Amino acid sequence: MSTVIVHCPCCDSNEVYRHGLSPTKRERFHCQCCRRVFQLIYRYEARTLKIGINTVIQALKSLRPAG
Ligand SMILES: [Zn+2]
User: Fold this and answer.
1) Dihedral sign (CA 46, 36, 22, 67)
2) CA of 17 to the centre of ligand 1 (A)
């Protein structure tokens, strides 16, 4: 059993737990700190593209429905 250290993209807490799969079969995580659900894939993409985490956070915010 491997352990993956995942940090919440919203509050950077490591109090995150697996939260099943998204409709696109990507792992989702639930943050105990701010209670948000996010997908780990964003972290991977950020690392691959060598862009800052702030860019990813902005992208995540833009994906949220308005209101
Ligand atoms: Zn959080």
Assistant:
1) negative
2) 11
